[in-house]
Every structure is written in structure tokens, then in C-alpha cells.
Write a structure and sequence with these properties.
InterPro entries: Leu-rich_rpt_typical-subtyp, LRR_5, LRR_dom_sf, SLRP. Pfam families: LRR_5. Keywords: Leucine-rich repeat, Repeat, Signal. This protein is elongated. The relative contact order is 0.07. By secondary structure, it is mainly beta. The protein has a domain at about 230-305. The strands form four sheets. Strands 4-3-5-7-9-11-13-14-16-18-19-20-21 form a 13-stranded mixed beta sheet, with no helix packed on it. About 10% of the residues lie in helices and about 30% in strands.
């Protein structure tokens, strides 16, 4: 059987095509790694592998084809020097559990790159992403988790993830988000009862009054280590239910009466460590203990100072 492993790569100033690629593959039975050098005879174990690591540098990813890999579950294209991914790159890719493109130099995800791609977990962390097309993730119906940590994104788009009915977890930490816009999460809770959103370590100062309009149940909602000067009780009061609302390390000096009344009874745990709370606000939280549903997590320094 002839192995067809195709990575079509657009190189500077010319088109370059490699019929085969340098890979690291893992034995399905033992998990032992093996090197495969382009154009070498194909070992049977490579055809049966569940995990492939691409071990080749190229600037523009044009097309990925892995035929005859019926057992492949994880494809890792990490630290390959990629600057750009062309639309339809993954159109012939069989369903995967994990697709990873971390530690590259990708600045934009265009519409047509991942549409209809059947991937359960997509990891795009440690790139230079500044732009994601509004429809870039449409119709990824197998997608459950997407990781976009350590990038350069400034805007969240509520149009992302249309018809991604199984999506349960989005992590977009260590970026430059400044605002959570209206209807930010309108495409969630299709086939999932609970959604987890991680927006830690951004620059969020503003939450639109309709950011949480018509949302479902959150497991984790992490807004920690941002620049929130206050949390509006009416805005956050639109939350249906939150297991853990993390507001650690923001710029909060108090929690409003509206927030205490509208939010703390919809939440099991609220973390507010590392905020410069006023003593009277901390005392009010202590007075409310036992009368609110949420457990409020404070740092020792906050309690000692008051």
C-alpha cells in the first residue's frame, strides 16, 4: 500500500509541494515514538497510529491530507513556524479528537479554514492571533473545547461558533480583550446544559448591559485578573446560574447591593481575592454569610487588614 501523506506548503516566492512530511508517530500498542523521514518506506505501525506530530518547518500551511489513517485521533502541528493557514486546508481531514497548532506565528484565522472540520478539541494557544473571522468556526459540530490562550486578540465576537452545538469550553486567557459585547454568548447552550468560559488575564474594563442576555448555565465563568472597576448587579443579574464566578485580581472596591442580591444567590462560589475592597464592603459580606447561597472566597490579607 502506498502511503499518501500530504502537506502542501506555500513557501516564500514560490510554490513548494512535499509529497510526504517528516513526522513523529506513536506506536498504537506501546506508545513508543518513532521518526518518519519524508519519502522513506512506510512502516505498518505508522498506518495504524493514533497520534502524529508534524516535525517540519514551513511558513504557510496550504493543505493537509492524511489518507489511510483510520485510527488517527491526534494531529499535532506545533512549533512549525507557520504564519498563515489557507482556507480549505483541513477539508479532507478525517474526524479527530485533538488538533493542535500551538507555538506558531499565526495572526489570523480566516473563514473557510475550519468550517465543517470535525475536531473535538482545537488548541491554538501561543500564536500571534489578532483577527478571527466572524464565521471562522461555523459548523464545527464536533467541537467541544477550543483554546486560544496567549494570543493578541482584542475583541470577542458574538457571531463566533455558529452551529457548534457541542461546544462546552472556550479558553481565551492572556489576550488583550477590553470588553464583553452584547449577546457575546448567543451561540452556546445548543446541546450543552453547562458552558465554561475562561477570560482570565485580559484587559476587560467594560461588560455590555446585554452581555449575558439569554444565557444558560455556566460551570466556570472566569473574569479574573482583568481591569473591572465594578461589577454591575443588573448586568450580572441576567446570569441564570454559575458554579464558579472568578473575579480575582480585578479592581473591585465593593460589591453593589444589586450584585449581592441578584448574583450571589445564583452562584455557588465567587472568588474575589486580590481586589482592593473597602473594609465596609467586606464587613457587609460577612454580615450576609448564611443568608446568601454563594461562598465568597477572600484572601487572608483582605480579612486581616479589616
Amino acid at each position: 500500500m502506498k502511503l499518501v501523506v500530504g502537506l502542501l506548503v506555500l513557501v516564500e516566492l514560490s510554490w513548494g509541494i512535499t509529497n510526504n512530511a517528516d513526522l513523529i508517530w506513536y506506536d498504537r500498542e506501546t506508545g513508543e515514538p518513532h521518526n518518519y523521514v519524508a519519502r522513506e518506506p512506510t512502516p505498518e505501525g505508522l498506518l495504524q497510529t493514533e497520534k502524529i506530530v508534524v516535525n517540519q518547518k514551513f511558513s504557510i500551511l496550504w493543505e493537509v491530507k492524511f489518507a489511510f489513517f483510520d485510527n488517527l485521533e491526534a494531529l499535532m502541528i506545533d512549533d512549525c513556524g507557520i504564519n498563515e493557514i489557507k482556507p480549505n486546508t483541513f477539508r479532507d481531514l478525517k474526524p479527530l479528537t485533538n488538533l493542535s497548532l500551538t507555538f506558531n506565528h499565526i495572526r489570523e484565522i480566516k473563514e473557510g479554514v475550519f468550517n465543517f472540520v470535525q475536531v473535538k478539541n482545537l488548541n491554538f494557544s501561543h500564536n500571534r492571533l489578532a483577527i478571527i473571522g466572524a464565521r471562522a468556526f461555523d459548523n464545527m459540530q464536533a467541537l467541544e473545547t477550543i483554546t486560544l490562550d496567549f494570543n493578541e486578540l482584542k475583541n470577542w465576537n458574538g457571531d463566533w461558533f455558529f452551529n457548534c452545538s457541542r461546544l462546552a469550553t472556550v479558553s481565551l486567557t492572556h489576550n488583550f480583550l477590553e470588553e464583553i459585547p452584547a449577546n457575546a454568548f448567543k451561540n452556546f447552550w445548543k446541546d450543552r446544559d453547562t458552558v465554561n468560559i475562561y477570560l482570565s488575564y485580559n484587559k476587560i474594563e467594560t461588560v455590555d448591559r446585554d452581555a449575558f442576555a439569554e444565557v444558560g448555565k455556566f460551570g466556570d465563568l472566569f473574569l479574573d485578573w482583568n481591569d473591572l472597576p465594578r461589577v454591575d448587579g443588573h448586568i450580572f443579574g441576567k446570569l441564570t446560574s454559575v458554579e464558579h464566578l472568578n473575579l480575582n485580581g480585578d479592581s473591585l472596591r465593593c460589591l453593589s447591593e444589586e450584585f449581592i442580591g441578584n448574583v450571589l444567590n445564583k452562584t455557588n462560589l465567587v472568588s474575589v481575592q486580590g481586589n482592593p475592597f473597602k473594609c465596609e464592603c467586606l464587613k457587609e459580606l460577612r454580615n450576609r454569610e448564611g443568608r446568601i447561597r454563594a461562598r465568597v472566597q477572600l484572601s487572608q490579607e483582605q480579612t486581616v487588614d479589616c
